[in-house]
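[step 3/7] inverse_fold.run input=structure_tokens len=355
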């Protein structure tokens, strides 16, 4: 499943097994007389002792990743009764295939904790140069007034998805109402569309009906949308934004200066063309084919002028150094500061409520 069920629904996971013992490699049926509810899960325990241990360290013993699939990541819901323990932590999965793949190589699917990473070790010179390179990129993209004055951005294009027969093109659209309302749509066929909507008030999926996101899914998609180049450039004045120059590089025939950027939980690297200031690459650690975590590099080209902005119309992606079709994208049309219907960000009501 790509979407969550009603986020308010509470379920007994792990087939009712005691999570404290399960984390230690033992299976014992819990008793409904000893239970703790955390989020959407109600955990059962064999007795007061393990219940007390859970309550002392809930983050250690509860299901990790908010119950999303440990192999495919937060975009995929985990089955509450499809689980595995790894290094004293319990994870859920979306399918038996996901369990099998995870158990074979768990290190491929668990993202490292980067919360402790910062630019504390960067020199003052590197930070000053990094900030200057970001400002240079802003100027190359149209200037601070254009970037900071954006009210809306509507992009339609063609991307690539994997199918059982290989790969196929799909239509996509991305709509921003700045600063913090985003809707992404992907069309898989004549009657198949998945929309992902994140607003300050709520976040949900639309595919036929509408389904609220879990907290972990909402955080995941917020982070994903912040990796958009325009979002990065607009964030530069925000509290906690840091940029450190980390050296020179090459993108095809162009010389670039590489800048490591941190803001709002996002960590990525920009490749800024030395001569023009254009951002030619944006790279970060993320999920590639089959949910494997690795290095994603987006390379931008075909820059065009749109309402005073200079924006890339082509993106070519690689994963761990290899060309990856699903990271390839081509912009077909782009509207800046156009009218956006507020209904795009409103959660559809259930069919029964509309009658």
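[step 3/7] decode complete -> sequence:
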């Amino acid at each position: 499943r790509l979407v969550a069920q009603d986020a308010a629904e509470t379920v007994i996971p792990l087939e009712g097994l005691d999570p404290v013992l399960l984390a230690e490699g033992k299976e014992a049926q819990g008793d409904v007389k000893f239970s703790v509810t955390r989020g959407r899960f109600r955990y059962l325990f064999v007795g007061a002792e393990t219940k007390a241990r859970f309550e002392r360290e809930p983050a250690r013993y509860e299901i990790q990743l908010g119950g999303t699939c440990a192999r495919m990541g937060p975009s995929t819901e985990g089955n509450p009764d499809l689980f595995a323990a790894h290094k004293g932590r319990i994870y859920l999965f979306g399918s038996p295939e996901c369990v099998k793949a995870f158990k074979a190589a768990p290190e491929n699917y668990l993202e490292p904790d980067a919360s402790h990473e910062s630019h504390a070790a960067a020199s003052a010179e590197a930070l000053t140069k990094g900030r200057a390179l970001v400002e240079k990129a802003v100027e190359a993209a149209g200037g601070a007034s254009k970037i900071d004055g954006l009210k809306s951005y509507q992009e339609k294009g063609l991307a690539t998805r994997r199918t059982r027969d290989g790969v196929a093109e799909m239509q996509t659209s991305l709509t921003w109402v700045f600063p913090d309302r985003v809707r992404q749509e992907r069309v898989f066929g004549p009657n198949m569309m998945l929309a992902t909507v994140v607003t300050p008030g709520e976040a949900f999926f639309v595919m036929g009906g509408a389904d609220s996101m879990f907290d972990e899914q909402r955080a995941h998609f917020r982070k994903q949308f912040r990796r958009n180049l325009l979002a990065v450039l607009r964030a530069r004045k925000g509290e906690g934004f840091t940029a450190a120059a980390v050296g020179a590089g090459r993108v095809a025939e162009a010389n670039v200066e590489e800048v490591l950027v941190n803001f709002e939980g996002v960590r990525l690297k920009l490749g800024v063309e030395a001569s023009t200031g254009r951002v030619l690459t944006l790279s970060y650690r993320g999920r590639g084919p089959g949910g494997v975590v690795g290095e994603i590099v987006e390379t931008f080209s075909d820059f065009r002028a749109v309402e005073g902005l200079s924006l890339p119309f082509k993106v070519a992606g690689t994963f761990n150094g290899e060309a990856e079709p699903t990271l390839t994208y081509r912009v077909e049309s782009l509207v800046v500061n156009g009218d956006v219907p507020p209904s795009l960000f409103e959660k559809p009501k259930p069919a029964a409520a509309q009658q």
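[step 4/7] annotate
The two ends are 28 Å apart (CA to CA).
The CA atoms of residues 149 and 337 lie 9 Å apart.
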